[in-house]
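Quick question, first post here. What does this chain look like in 3D?
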Amino acid sequence: MNLSQHTLRSYDKQLEHLLQLILDMGGEVQKMVLAAKASFRSRDESRVADAKLADKHINELDHQIEDEATVVLALQNPLAIDLRFVISVLKITTMLERAGDLAKNTIKRSVKMGSYAPELIIQKLERMADVTVEMLALALEAFEEKNTEKATQVWKRDAEIDALYKEIFDLMQKSMVENPANAQSCTHVVFAAKNIERVADYTTNLAKTVYYVASGKRADKAMLKELSDAAEETSTH
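> Answer (accepted):
Ran it through. C-alpha coordinates below.
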Protein backbone atom coordinates (compact mmCIF):
# COMPACT_ATOMS: atom_id res chain seq x y z
CA MET A 1 0.00 0.00 0.00
CA ASN A 2 1.41 3.34 -0.97
CA LEU A 3 0.84 5.15 2.28
CA SER A 4 2.26 8.63 2.54
CA GLN A 5 5.89 8.89 3.62
CA HIS A 6 6.54 10.38 7.03
CA THR A 7 9.41 12.19 8.69
CA LEU A 8 9.74 9.37 11.19
CA ARG A 9 10.85 6.21 9.40
CA SER A 10 9.74 4.21 12.46
CA TYR A 11 6.16 5.36 11.80
CA ASP A 12 6.32 4.08 8.22
CA LYS A 13 7.64 0.77 9.49
CA GLN A 14 4.77 0.48 11.96
CA LEU A 15 2.21 0.98 9.19
CA GLU A 16 4.03 -1.40 6.86
CA HIS A 17 4.15 -4.03 9.60
CA LEU A 18 0.42 -3.70 10.23
CA LEU A 19 -0.18 -4.25 6.53
CA GLN A 20 2.04 -7.33 6.49
CA LEU A 21 0.30 -8.78 9.54
CA ILE A 22 -3.08 -8.38 7.82
CA LEU A 23 -1.73 -10.11 4.70
CA ASP A 24 -0.32 -12.92 6.86
CA MET A 25 -3.60 -13.31 8.72
CA GLY A 26 -5.54 -13.33 5.46
CA GLY A 27 -3.20 -15.97 4.09
CA GLU A 28 -3.87 -18.17 7.11
CA VAL A 29 -7.62 -17.82 6.59
CA GLN A 30 -7.21 -18.83 2.95
CA LYS A 31 -5.38 -21.97 4.10
CA MET A 32 -8.23 -22.72 6.51
CA VAL A 33 -10.85 -22.43 3.77
CA LEU A 34 -8.79 -24.74 1.55
CA ALA A 35 -8.52 -27.18 4.46
CA ALA A 36 -12.31 -27.05 4.75
CA LYS A 37 -12.56 -27.79 1.04
CA ALA A 38 -10.32 -30.84 1.44
CA SER A 39 -12.39 -32.04 4.40
CA PHE A 40 -15.51 -32.36 2.24
CA ARG A 41 -13.99 -35.50 0.71
CA SER A 42 -11.56 -36.63 3.41
CA ARG A 43 -13.56 -36.51 6.62
CA ASP A 44 -10.74 -37.31 8.99
CA GLU A 45 -11.16 -36.40 12.64
CA SER A 46 -7.49 -35.32 12.71
CA ARG A 47 -8.43 -32.39 10.47
CA VAL A 48 -10.41 -30.93 13.37
CA ALA A 49 -7.34 -30.88 15.60
CA ASP A 50 -5.30 -29.25 12.83
CA ALA A 51 -8.04 -26.66 12.33
CA LYS A 52 -8.02 -25.78 16.03
CA LEU A 53 -4.27 -25.17 15.91
CA ALA A 54 -4.59 -23.03 12.80
CA ASP A 55 -7.42 -21.07 14.38
CA LYS A 56 -5.29 -20.47 17.48
CA HIS A 57 -2.58 -18.96 15.27
CA ILE A 58 -5.15 -16.70 13.58
CA ASN A 59 -6.36 -15.55 16.99
CA GLU A 60 -2.78 -14.77 18.02
CA LEU A 61 -2.35 -12.62 14.90
CA ASP A 62 -5.65 -10.91 15.72
CA HIS A 63 -4.38 -9.95 19.17
CA GLN A 64 -1.00 -8.82 17.84
CA ILE A 65 -2.60 -6.60 15.19
CA GLU A 66 -4.98 -5.07 17.73
CA ASP A 67 -2.11 -4.31 20.10
CA GLU A 68 0.09 -2.76 17.40
CA ALA A 69 -2.74 -0.73 15.89
CA THR A 70 -3.62 0.63 19.33
CA VAL A 71 -0.02 1.75 19.83
CA VAL A 72 -0.06 3.59 16.49
CA LEU A 73 -3.31 5.35 17.38
CA ALA A 74 -2.05 6.30 20.82
CA LEU A 75 1.46 7.47 19.93
CA GLN A 76 1.37 8.66 16.32
CA ASN A 77 -1.98 10.48 16.15
CA PRO A 78 -2.51 9.48 12.49
CA LEU A 79 -4.54 11.73 10.17
CA ALA A 80 -6.38 11.38 6.85
CA ILE A 81 -5.55 8.18 4.94
CA ASP A 82 -3.31 6.89 7.72
CA LEU A 83 -6.17 7.13 10.21
CA ARG A 84 -8.55 5.38 7.81
CA PHE A 85 -5.94 2.69 7.30
CA VAL A 86 -5.37 1.99 11.01
CA ILE A 87 -9.08 2.01 11.85
CA SER A 88 -9.75 -0.29 8.90
CA VAL A 89 -7.01 -2.66 10.06
CA LEU A 90 -8.92 -3.11 13.31
CA LYS A 91 -12.12 -3.84 11.38
CA ILE A 92 -10.45 -6.21 8.95
CA THR A 93 -8.72 -8.27 11.63
CA THR A 94 -12.12 -8.86 13.26
CA MET A 95 -13.55 -10.00 9.92
CA LEU A 96 -10.64 -12.36 9.32
CA GLU A 97 -10.82 -13.79 12.84
CA ARG A 98 -14.51 -14.58 12.40
CA ALA A 99 -13.87 -16.03 8.94
CA GLY A 100 -11.26 -18.34 10.48
CA ASP A 101 -13.78 -19.50 13.09
CA LEU A 102 -16.29 -20.28 10.34
CA ALA A 103 -13.71 -22.25 8.35
CA LYS A 104 -12.83 -24.24 11.47
CA ASN A 105 -16.49 -24.97 12.15
CA THR A 106 -16.94 -26.06 8.53
CA ILE A 107 -14.30 -28.73 9.04
CA LYS A 108 -16.14 -29.91 12.14
CA ARG A 109 -19.36 -30.09 10.14
CA SER A 110 -17.76 -32.06 7.33
CA VAL A 111 -16.62 -34.76 9.75
CA LYS A 112 -20.22 -35.09 10.99
CA MET A 113 -21.54 -35.68 7.46
CA GLY A 114 -20.56 -39.33 7.89
CA SER A 115 -20.74 -41.40 4.74
CA TYR A 116 -23.20 -39.06 3.04
CA ALA A 117 -21.33 -37.81 -0.03
CA PRO A 118 -23.33 -37.06 -3.21
CA GLU A 119 -20.76 -36.04 -5.83
CA LEU A 120 -22.81 -33.08 -7.06
CA ILE A 121 -23.04 -31.62 -3.57
CA ILE A 122 -19.32 -32.08 -2.92
CA GLN A 123 -18.50 -30.34 -6.19
CA LYS A 124 -20.71 -27.39 -5.30
CA LEU A 125 -19.17 -27.11 -1.83
CA GLU A 126 -15.70 -27.24 -3.37
CA ARG A 127 -16.67 -24.55 -5.85
CA MET A 128 -17.90 -22.34 -3.02
CA ALA A 129 -14.57 -22.76 -1.23
CA ASP A 130 -12.57 -22.04 -4.38
CA VAL A 131 -14.48 -18.86 -5.21
CA THR A 132 -14.22 -17.68 -1.61
CA VAL A 133 -10.44 -18.18 -1.59
CA GLU A 134 -10.18 -16.29 -4.88
CA MET A 135 -12.27 -13.46 -3.45
CA LEU A 136 -10.14 -13.27 -0.34
CA ALA A 137 -6.89 -13.27 -2.33
CA LEU A 138 -8.19 -10.43 -4.50
CA ALA A 139 -9.44 -8.46 -1.48
CA LEU A 140 -6.00 -8.71 0.13
CA GLU A 141 -4.37 -7.60 -3.11
CA ALA A 142 -6.77 -4.65 -3.23
CA PHE A 143 -5.83 -3.75 0.34
CA GLU A 144 -2.10 -3.97 -0.32
CA GLU A 145 -2.36 -1.93 -3.53
CA LYS A 146 -5.12 0.42 -2.35
CA ASN A 147 -6.98 -0.63 -5.49
CA THR A 148 -10.69 0.26 -5.65
CA GLU A 149 -11.22 -1.61 -8.93
CA LYS A 150 -10.07 -4.91 -7.45
CA ALA A 151 -12.20 -4.27 -4.38
CA THR A 152 -15.21 -3.84 -6.66
CA GLN A 153 -14.46 -7.13 -8.41
CA VAL A 154 -14.59 -8.93 -5.06
CA TRP A 155 -18.14 -8.00 -4.12
CA LYS A 156 -19.35 -8.74 -7.63
CA ARG A 157 -18.47 -12.40 -7.05
CA ASP A 158 -20.51 -12.66 -3.88
CA ALA A 159 -23.61 -13.30 -6.00
CA GLU A 160 -21.98 -16.49 -7.30
CA ILE A 161 -21.53 -17.74 -3.75
CA ASP A 162 -25.12 -16.91 -2.84
CA ALA A 163 -26.39 -18.81 -5.89
CA LEU A 164 -24.34 -21.89 -5.02
CA TYR A 165 -25.59 -21.82 -1.44
CA LYS A 166 -29.21 -21.67 -2.60
CA GLU A 167 -28.62 -24.61 -4.96
CA ILE A 168 -27.16 -26.69 -2.11
CA PHE A 169 -29.95 -25.68 0.26
CA ASP A 170 -32.64 -26.66 -2.26
CA LEU A 171 -30.97 -29.99 -3.03
CA MET A 172 -30.66 -30.81 0.68
CA GLN A 173 -34.32 -30.02 1.27
CA LYS A 174 -35.25 -32.36 -1.56
CA SER A 175 -32.95 -35.09 -0.23
CA MET A 176 -34.44 -34.88 3.27
CA VAL A 177 -37.95 -35.19 1.88
CA GLU A 178 -37.05 -38.16 -0.31
CA ASN A 179 -35.04 -39.93 2.37
CA PRO A 180 -35.60 -38.74 5.98
CA ALA A 181 -32.73 -40.94 7.13
CA ASN A 182 -30.37 -38.42 5.51
CA ALA A 183 -31.78 -35.50 7.48
CA GLN A 184 -28.93 -35.20 9.97
CA SER A 185 -26.19 -35.40 7.34
CA CYS A 186 -28.06 -32.99 5.07
CA THR A 187 -28.33 -30.52 7.94
CA HIS A 188 -24.57 -30.58 8.42
CA VAL A 189 -24.10 -30.01 4.69
CA VAL A 190 -26.37 -26.95 4.83
CA PHE A 191 -24.51 -25.53 7.82
CA ALA A 192 -21.15 -26.15 6.14
CA ALA A 193 -22.34 -24.34 3.02
CA LYS A 194 -23.73 -21.50 5.14
CA ASN A 195 -20.37 -21.13 6.89
CA ILE A 196 -18.57 -20.73 3.57
CA GLU A 197 -21.24 -18.28 2.40
CA ARG A 198 -20.61 -16.20 5.53
CA VAL A 199 -16.85 -16.27 4.96
CA ALA A 200 -17.57 -14.81 1.52
CA ASP A 201 -19.76 -12.16 3.16
CA TYR A 202 -16.92 -11.16 5.46
CA THR A 203 -14.63 -11.03 2.45
CA THR A 204 -17.10 -8.76 0.66
CA ASN A 205 -17.18 -6.48 3.70
CA LEU A 206 -13.39 -6.49 3.72
CA ALA A 207 -13.44 -5.30 0.11
CA LYS A 208 -15.87 -2.52 1.01
CA THR A 209 -13.51 -1.47 3.80
CA VAL A 210 -10.63 -1.41 1.32
CA TYR A 211 -12.71 0.84 -0.93
CA TYR A 212 -13.20 3.21 2.00
CA VAL A 213 -9.50 3.26 2.85
CA ALA A 214 -8.51 4.01 -0.73
CA SER A 215 -11.20 6.52 -1.65
CA GLY A 216 -12.47 7.98 1.60
CA LYS A 217 -16.00 7.12 0.44
CA ARG A 218 -18.31 4.48 1.87
CA ALA A 219 -19.58 1.88 -0.57
CA ASP A 220 -23.36 2.18 -0.13
CA LYS A 221 -25.83 0.16 -2.21
CA ALA A 222 -26.22 2.80 -4.91
CA MET A 223 -22.47 3.17 -5.27
CA LEU A 224 -21.95 -0.59 -5.36
CA LYS A 225 -24.44 -0.92 -8.21
CA GLU A 226 -22.85 1.96 -10.11
CA LEU A 227 -19.36 0.54 -9.68
CA SER A 228 -20.46 -2.98 -10.59
CA ASP A 229 -22.25 -1.73 -13.70
CA ALA A 230 -19.19 0.26 -14.73
CA ALA A 231 -16.91 -2.73 -14.22
CA GLU A 232 -19.32 -4.93 -16.18
CA GLU A 233 -19.35 -2.44 -19.08
CA THR A 234 -15.53 -2.23 -19.08
CA SER A 235 -15.18 -6.02 -19.15
CA THR A 236 -17.37 -6.30 -22.26
CA HIS A 237 -15.20 -3.94 -24.31
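The chain is about 85% helix and 0% strand.
The helical segments are 9-39, 46-76, 80-112, 119-145, 148-156, 158-178, 183-215, 221-235.
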